[in-house]
Predict the 3D structure of the following.
Amino acid sequence: MSKVPADLKYTKSHEWVRALADGTVEVGITDHAQHALGDLVFVEVPEAGRAVKAGEPCAVVESVKAASDVYAPLAGEVTGGNGRLGGEPQVVNSDPYGEGWLMRLKPVAGALSGAALLTAAEYQRVLEAEGG
Amino acid sequence: MPQREQLIFEYSRAGRGASDQWPHEADPAALADLPAALRRAAPPQLPEVGELEAVRHFTRLSQLNFSIDTHFYPLGSCTMKYNPKACNQYAMLPEFLARHPLAPESSGQGLLACLYELQEMLKAVSGMEGVALSPMAGAHGEFAGVAMIRAYHRARGDLKRNEIIVPEAAHGTNPATATMCGCVVREIPIEPEGDVDVAALEAAVGPNTAGIMLTNPSTLGLFERRIEEVARIVHEAGGLLYYDGANLNAILGKVRPGDMGFDVIHMNLHKTFSTPHGGGGPGAGAVGVGARLVPFLPVPLVGREGERYRWLTEADLPQSIGRLSAFMGNTGVLLRAYIYMRLLGREGMQSVGEYATLNANYLMARLRAAGFDVPYPRRRAGHEFIVTLKRQARELNVTAMDFAKRLLDYGFHAPTTYFPLLVPECLLIEPTETESKDVLDAFVSAMSQIQKEAEQEPARVTTAPHTMPVRRLDDVRAARQLDLTWKPTPP
Amino acid sequence: MAFIPHTQADVAAMVDAIGVARIEDLFDEIPQGLRIKSLAGVPTALNEMEIGRLMGARARADGAPLSFIGAGAYEHHIPAAVWGITTRGEFYSAYTPYQAEASQGTLQMIYEFQTMIARLTGMEVANASMYDGASATAEAALMAVRANRKSKAARILVPATVHPHYRRVAVTTASNQGLKFEELPYCTAEGITPSASLARYEGQDITALMVQQPNFFGRLEDVDALTDWARARAILVIAIVNPTSLALLKPPGEWGARGADIAVGEGQPLGVPLSSGGPYLGFMTARMEHVRQLPGRIVGRTLDVAGREGFTLTLQAREQHIRRAKATSNICTNQGLAVTAATIYMSLMGPQGLTRTAAAAHARTRELIAALTRVPGVRLAFPGPYFHEAVLTLDRPVAPVLKSLSNRGILGGLDLSGYFPELGNALLVCATETKTAADVERYRAQLTEAMQAARAA
């Protein structure tokens, strides 16, 4: 059973979103997603300064058997990618909700409250519906 | 099987070399005109080994391979049939090897006659109106085919059509090819019995449809029973039908793609027409087209005027999608396919599809009788079929990959694993027509034996192979710590 | 027939096991109306003895003329060991090495190939090969667009001195994806690309610059200046090189201050026969930072569960079978057998042998040029340095001269008038180490007569 921390928001495409104190958000992939992909061998994160739209592919996670785009959960400007993952993609496997975060975004005005994000309970139901 | 062979670089000793093979040293004055600024500072660090050392090294490497010549190789969707030795010998006659690609046609009439006749025979077996031989692999032929579809719509001023429909079970090259041609891919689902979902197809086609890419029999090894309806729907919507010839061996001599309504087709000569796979190539992906796509064929083609043959180029086909190779594609492979087709002739060609299908259905029946599950039990197999080991994975924790690896220990190359993605824990098995009943029976025994092992001592299976030069390799390490070229370890 | 081993008893037992009466019943899912009516277009079968006679006659019909054509395909000595080993069934009849444990021979050979090609080109990483030099060039253009994220224009500068067929293949391959190829003019007096011609692109969004060395005319481009200009402007450099030449010429990894970004070329000169154009192999290399944008197969070294070294296909998530519509290319194969031949060839040649081959080829071409330019009406088109191939200008149309030579058993080179009409009566000629001094003299003597015959006509 994969972990779904209660204090985060989620997307149907298996990203999580954490609101930070400074008004930016942190984005990563869920425990379910990292488990489904298997051992990650490569992670590509966006460069700071890039403007992204909600639903736009903006990072890539790769295992030996699969490659998957990561979609921006909401519109905003990338304030930074997790540089550590370039050399240690396995951190996403070992700590998907912590050290394995992918990028930080500064949401455009109203994007966070307006985005159709899921609560932990709602995401849990998505996983159950997928048979996970 | 021999164990590990060291790298050629580890044999290297400064000053050694296969000097019998080298030309005499040129007068250094002859190099004086090459400006120093454009010269290489130090010679390239190639290995320095004697001829016998090199011969032994590469011979030993060859012995670390499974191959058709040494092992049953039932790799689904790859048609690993016997590659007749005559095809190699007569394609490698010295005059053929020495001929320069830009030599005048007058010194190539023998070659051009072979290629022209190959075009004609491929037309006859595929039911198409025109054939081009230059694509150098199946994927290259696919590219040519979809590029022709685009060129056709464009030439009619129908500029919107950029969607290519593929069934969800399609080979990965289909969507990749569509993208290379600047198209958008729309996937449509498969029905429970394995046919294309016709209702979904009807909903998917429209004014943006460039065409559909289909394999028939499909990647599930099943004949698309409603193919005529599919053709009608796509044609009525203004799209064209692309036939991926990966599975042509199943129907060779029985049904022709042209008669099924396909407008364009590629044929993997390295599958159906038995040119070697060569450890991954060179292949040849000749394309065939119906009348309306003939003007768009890639160049060069071979034309005949009276008793003379000549290349047809852009000057002859101004609407051609253009050139795909520096010269004429994989000519030597084309010669091998030509020889194969002449050896089989009309009579042999008819029996290919028959016996490929017989072998697949027999093997499927035997494996089912031995207790293995197939996902489409009510369907005939084409030239290949799927076994699913979902039950074994669930109950015994032994996966399709484990079975595949253990088969290597029994002296059989593994079938294709985990393709098509639609069927969990699958093995895609294609025996081909050139295997005897005895070999198929031995394969069934091995599978049954592995099943028994999976039940009684599963670790034997899950840690296989045990008799290969290496055990299972760490793919994750290979991708994380890239080691793609050899570097000497510092002393 | 058709290499099918079944006895009648086998067939009877097999249909019985399936539960049908005869083979024909296995096709009962195929609509009757679709069944084949006739295979009349295929002749009746020949046996092996008959095919041997037929192919022998066809081969002899093509003859064995003395050839001085180069233009991207070069006749070199091929040691007997090269194809003797390459056509062993274990290499010849194996498939793509998906089951790594049962394919260590092919995998290790490709790893050795990648290493040799990387060393020869001075680049950091090589793939397992593309179809040929032209398709590798086209794929390099597509790769440059992926790799150069700063550029949005998908514009590639292509000197007119790049092989004309390569340029056409690049257009066929890449234009559907919106790439724009812009031709850089060359200096008709010098036969090279003047770096001054780049000035007009100053400040524009350019994705990559191609440079062929030696160029199609055999001339040596100022690769350092071209590379430095591009790299100073974040424009990627795609080098197209002849592998034999790299024994003597500066490898693309060392061009300019920082080297090329991608280097490709035709591997045919490395032990692969001319064979009317194929199968050849395109080699493809890059700087390590671009490895994930490389198309095609790549082999890596790793460890097995027991800690022993072994080889496997790696970085497969770039490829079509995983990434489907988002793959780097649709290519699934490499030119395996040609790669095997090239790897054995490079091992037998080694640094000394390849250097001697390059030097001997170049020396022979210089003798050829010296001899032919003594023939009245023949001169060297471009004054500067060339490598083992050069352009001559005749004082009369080339085609009749070549026809006359061909009637005398000599293929005198490639008529450039269809490709480069502005050069007038231009003829591209090449000699390699396979030509002797007597061959050169024969060509000179026959050219003298052919020129006179052409004038008389």
User: Anything to note?
Assistant: The first strand of chain C starts at residue 66 and ends at 67. The radius of gyration of chain C is 26 Å. Residues 80-344 of chain C form a domain with the Aspartate Aminotransferase; domain 2 fold (CATH 3.40.640.10).
